[in-house]
Amino acid sequence: MCDFFKNYYIYASCTDPGLHFYKIELDGSPQGACSRAPHERFIVKGDKCEHCQGSLPLRI
User: Which domain of life is it from (predicted)?
Assistant: First the structure.
């Protein structure tokens, strides 16, 4: 089983997490990894996205 990942840390409230990630980190080792590695993994943080909070619709 492959254990080589590229972790994208994203905000839970983000409307475009593929663009607004706040950190990327490699996890595991490329030695012994499969040919399709590193695999993408998204880790969600509960804070508000600094990039799109102004573009979210206002709820009244």
Answer: Eukaryota
